[in-house]
């Protein structure tokens, strides 16, 4: 039985295999199995993880547990957040007021002073700066919020360009969504705009084209040069 073959029941209380219940147990709530072979579950004793045989990974119980990413799982107890390894052990001694899920072996966290930054798999900071917000890494780049606006940083915490924006998205292939005082548009990794137009809403490029919405609430399709290709009625 592979982890990908174990499904969650429609009511979210147990697991199934070939549409039949497994583990001979119902929970109050379950989340899906991840590639490490563990799933978060919740019963009267609290939240914890089980393996693909339905056995608990550890004896401790938490107020909330989440799935494993990069062999690390986020758990919270008494408003203190930490990561567990695949043995159910705490990875580091520090606790946070919030932690995310590891992406590309790096994780966004918030300390007790509401500072955001990123840590590595050992729980060590990868840079010294504090931010108002720090998002997940994708293809080695993350969005962070400074007091002046949003910026992009690389996996060492270095700025990838000198540009500052009112809002930012992650890079999807070569381009990211960005917002200035006039609206949303697309940029390259140098922070340069791809076109002059601004929109109320935009999506990342999908196979060379993006769905955008004008300030007249009209939806359109543009290409990577910003040229209008389709008007959606």
Describe this structure in words.
It is a single chain. The protein has 233 residues and is mainly beta. Helix content is 0%, strand content 39%. The protein is built from no helices and 22 strands. A 4-stranded antiparallel sheet has the order 19-20-21-22, with no helix packed on it. Strands 1-2-3 form a 3-stranded antiparallel sheet, with no helix packed on it. 28% of the residues are buried. The mean pLDDT is 97.
Averaged pLDDT: 97
Count all strands and give the number. Answer: 22
Beta-strand content estimate: 35-45%
Estimate percent helicity: under 10%
Query: H/E order of the elements?
Result: EEEEEEEEEEEEEEEEEEEEEE
Q: Give me the Rg, rounded.
A: 21 Å
Q: Which segments are poorly predicted (pLDDT under 50) over 5 or more consecutive residues?
A: none
Shape, principal axes of CA atoms: globular
| Strand order across the largest sheet | 19-20-21-22
Number of helices: 0
Secondary structure category: mainly beta
The N- to C-terminal Cα distance equals 48 Å
Can you summarize the main beta sheet?
A: 4 strands, antiparallel
Give the helix/strand layout.
Elements: E1 6-8, E2 15-17, E3 20-21, E4 29-30, E5 38-43, E6 46-51, E7 64-69, E8 72-77, E9 80-84, E10 98-99, E11 107-110, E12 116-119, E13 133-134, E14 141-145, E15 150-154, E16 167-168, E17 176-180, E18 183-187, E19 201-202, E20 209-213, E21 219-223, E22 228-232
């Amino acid at each position: 039985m592979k982890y990908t073959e174990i499904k969650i029941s429609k009511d979210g209380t147990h697991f199934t295999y070939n549409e039949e219940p497994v583990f001979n147990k119902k929970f109050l709530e379950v989340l899906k199995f991840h590639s490490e072979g563990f799933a978060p579950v919740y019963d009267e004793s609290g939240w914890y993880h089980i393996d693909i045989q339905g056995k608990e990974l550890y004896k401790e119980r938490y107020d909330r547990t989440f799935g494993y990413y990069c062999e690390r799982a986020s758990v919270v107890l008494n408003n203190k957040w930490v990561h567990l390894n695949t043995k159910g052990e705490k990875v580091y001694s520090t606790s946070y007021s919030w932690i995310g899920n590891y992406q590309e072996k790096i994780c966004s966290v918030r300390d007790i002073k509401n500072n955001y930054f990123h840590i590595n798999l050992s729980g060590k900071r990868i840079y010294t700066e504090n931010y108002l917000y720090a998002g997940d890494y994708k293809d080695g780049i993350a969005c962070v919020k400074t007091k002046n606006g949003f910026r992009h940083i690389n996996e060492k915490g270095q700025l990838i360009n000198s540009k500052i924006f009112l809002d930012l998205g992650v890079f999807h292939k070569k381009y990211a969504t960005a917002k200035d005082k006039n609206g949303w548009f697309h940029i390259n990794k140098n922070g340069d705009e791809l076109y002059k137009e601004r929109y109320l809403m935009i999506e990342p490029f999908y196979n060379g084209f993006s769905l955008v919405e004008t300030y007249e609430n009209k939806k359109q399709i543009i290409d990577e040069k910003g040229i209008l290709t389709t008007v959606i009625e």
